[in-house]
Design brief:
Elements (H helix, E strand, L loop, with lengths): L7 H5 L4 E2 L10 H13 L10 H20 L7 E4 L2 H11 L6 E4 L8 H4 L10 E4 L10 H10 L5 E5 L11 H10 L3 E5 L18 E5 L10 E5 L16 E4 L4 E3 L13 H17 L1 H18 L6 E3 L16 E6 L4 H9 L3 E2 L1 E3 L4 H7 L4 E5 L6 H17 L2
Parallel strand pairs: 1-13, 3-4, 3-5, 5-6, 6-7
Antiparallel strand pairs: 2-8, 7-8, 9-10, 11-12, 12-15, 14-15
Helix pairs in contact: 2-8, 3-8, 9-12
Bound molecules: 4'-deoxy-4'-aminopyridoxal-5'-phosphate (PMP).
């Protein structure tokens, strides 16, 4: 189900070895089919029309919300559609404007740093606390985490990354959540780099908030999910307009209840439907098979000789080995000769797609390398041929920089 033939961008560019799935994964044919079907056979505004194909849109949208909620094993009315993880984190930041302190990790993506800075929270003024990462394991330092959480006033927010987009290391968010709750803080986890690779089960209300994006899990761009353990009716609306209201006069407004309160305006209906199909596809394939396929691609990279290249790996123990807490989909390195951006610039002239720079995680990458990194990210659709192309292109580029 996740073979290359199901991903049109890849079949339409057979010469390209795509190793940038952590930036955005390719869209599955079935996702495109469902979105196309919406546009050609039942395009209509959801929850607004009585005619038959408008009802079809209502049903497809509701099914999509159910499928997305099932992916993290929560109820459909606990998931609001957003434009993506960035929007979700910005909303959560706004809802926590008055939290005494916000605790993040050193490995956060900018989407979980900048909204807090914009509120005037800084490490310097102590309203933003940063849990350091253990350089050997690539995980947050749990001892420091406990100390910081104990020092912060209750009802602070612990907002952490689930899987690092730099190292691919899975963070012990379950343990951190228990710690946070012990100190009466609430918890938000950014699962943007997790949902495509690992089963997340939030059925026990382990955390209060979660966010992720469809485009990192074979779905469309511009759509994502925000989970809350709280009743959405009680949360301040972040967008105002039509559709999300029950009644409006020139003097007052009565908002709709639950998730609908937060989804005014004509939604990204095709995106929502595509998101639902992507969630269903992952469930259908199963995480065990996905992990098996990702491990196989990793093994193929080894077989192609990637470990023989003069690269310093930014993974636990500085080796890209399959470590127990490593989601086998993200590998970053610094070339022993030359600059990472030169490697990427030269690779751009070949048929290999990788990512370079500071990966929207400047503080973390700066702590790991003073030159940025090159990131290879894999997906089940990568083939042995892709791995051979990557390794031979990289080898050629590295020898040019010697
Ligand atoms: N968090 C992490 C860990 C990410 O990798 C990304 C995307 N690079 C984001 C947040 C932001 O996601 P989006 O661009 O879909 O809003």
């Amino acid at each position: 189900m996740f073979d290359k033939q199901y991903f049109p961008t890849l079949s339409n560019n057979p010469e390209v070895a795509y190793f940038d799935s952590a930036a955005t994964s390719q869209t599955h044919q079935y996702v495109l089919d469902a979105m196309h079907k919406y546009y050609i056979s039942h395009r209509s505004s959801p929850a607004r029309g009585e005619y038959p194909f408008a009802e079809q849109t209502d049903i497809a949208s509701a099914q999509a919300r159910y499928a997305v909620s099932q992916l993290i094993n929560v109820e459909a009315d606990q998931v609001v559609f957003t434009s993506g993880t960035t929007q979700g984190l910005n909303w959560i930041a706004e809802w926590h404007r008055n939290a005494p302190t916000v605790i993040i990790t050193e490995a956060e993506h900018h989407a979980n740093i900048v909204p807090w800075l914009q509120q005037g929270r800084t490490k310097q003024n102590g309203r933003l606390r940063v849990i350091p990462m253990d350089p050997y394991t690539g995980e947050v330092d749990l001892v420091e985490a406990e100390d910081i959480m104990a020092e912060c006033e209750p009802r602070s927010l612990v907002s952490i990354i689930g899987t690092s987009n730099v190292t691919g290391i899975r963070q012990p968010w379950e343990q951190l959540a228990k710690m946070a709750h012990y100190h009466n803080h609430s918890v938000c986890v950014d699962f943007c780099q997790t949902v495509a690779h690992e089963q997340i089960d939030l059925s026990e209300n382990q955390i209060e908030w979660a966010v992720f994006s469809a485009h990192k899990m074979y779905g469309p761009t511009g759509i994502g999910a925000l989970y809350s353990a709280f009743d959405f009716t009680e949360l301040k609306a972040m967008l105002y307009g039509g559709g999300a209201v029950e009644h409006v006069t020139f003097n007052d407004v009565a908002f709709m209840k639950g998730v609908h309160k937060h989804e005014p305006g004509t939604p990204n209906t095709a995106g929502i439907i595509g998101f639902g199909v992507a969630a269903d596809l992952i469930q259908y394939e199963g995480y065990e098979k996905i992990k098996y396929q990702e491990n196989s691609v990793c093994q193929q990279l080894y077989d192609s000789g990637i470990l023989d290249l003069p690269l310093d790996w930014i993974t636990p123990y500085r080796e890209p080995a399959q470590h127990w807490n490593h989601v086998p989909a993200i590998y970053s390195f610094v070339p022993q000769q030359g600059h990472p951006s030169d490697v990427a610039a030269l690779l751009a002239h070949t048929n290999t797609a990788v990512r370079t720079g500071k990966l929207c995680a400047h503080p973390y990458v700066d702590s790991l390398s003073n030159r940025g990194v090159v990131r290879i990210s894999i997906a089940p659709y990568n083939t042995q041929e892709d791995c051979d192309t990557l390794v031979s292109d990289l080898s050629r580029v590295l020898s040019m920089l010697e």
